[in-house]
Design brief:
CATH topology: Rossmann fold
CATH architecture: 3-Layer(aba) Sandwich
Largest sheet: 5 strands, parallel
Number of strands: 5
Order of helices and strands: HHEHHEHEHHEHEHH
Helix content: 40-55%
Distance between the termini: 66 Å
Structural class: alpha/beta
CATH class: Alpha Beta
Shape: globular
CATH superfamily: SGNH hydrolase
């Protein structure tokens, strides 16, 4: 009985510690959101791919009135929780959602393709309810995650998720931004010229994405 009590006590403390942590990382952009331009052309919501993009090519964001709200390592559940603070409060014309690769890499544990899709759809629906145009971006190609080499056939999982997202966008008044088709190599991954580690784009990779994104915004004013 004593052992059970101790085990339950430890479990309760662990839960409280977990709950007290800033799991969604609201703190990351708390100050930046206070000084961010209001009504930007778009907020780019995402993970390290978006995070690195804003860091490596900030001029692109500033010149085109874009706000980067990527956080390295994040999964779609965390982005969904961040929607109000990091997107809605800024009242952009568009939100460009680039999400899902870390879910497939199991950064936050097992999750089905259907539930990844559901999180992205929820983000899109929240944005639409607030009059924000939704651009759902394809997950970038990945042949192998360098930090999760045990993940089986990520390229095929990404293709499946992208097909679901493309269909949803077409049927629900959203824009589908197809980075994947323009960047994938014969293996269904990213060539080294576009991503040294096979996941995170180089400036050359971002140049392709920038051209596609700006064309998307121009065609959907």
């Amino acid at each position: 009985m004593k052992k059970l009590f101790v085990s339950l006590f430890i479990a309760a403390i662990s839960t409280l510690c977990a709950l007290s942590a800033d799991w969604a990382n609201f703190a990351r952009y708390e100050q930046a959101n206070k000084s961010a331009p209001k009504n930007p052309q778009a907020v780019l919501l995402g993970d390290s791919i978006t995070d690195n993009w804003a860091r490596m090519h900030g001029d692109f964001f500033e010149k085109n009135n874009l706000v980067g709200r990527g956080i390295s390592g994040q999964v779609t559940s965390q982005m969904l929780v961040r929607m109000r603070r990091d997107v809605l409060d800024l009242n952009p014309k568009f939100v460009a959602i680039l999400a899902g690769t870390n879910d497939i890499a199991k950064n936050n544990g097992d999750i089905s393709i259907e539930n990844i899709y559901g999180n992205i759809v929820s983000i899109a629906e929240i944005a639409k309810l607030h009059g924000i145009k939704v651009a759902i971006c394809s997950v970038l190609p990945v042949y192998q995650y360098p930090w999760r080499k045990e993940i089986s056939e990520p390229a095929e999982q990404i293709k499946k998720l992208n097909a679901m997202l493309k269909k949803y966008a077409a049927e629900n008044g959203c824009i589908y931004v197809d980075y994947h088709s323009a960047m994938a190599d014969a293996r269904g991954g990213l060539p080294e010229s576009l991503a040294k580690d096979g996941v995170h784009p180089t400036l050359e990779g971002y140049a392709i994405m920038e051209k596609i994104l700006l064309k998307t915004f121009s065609e959907n004013k």
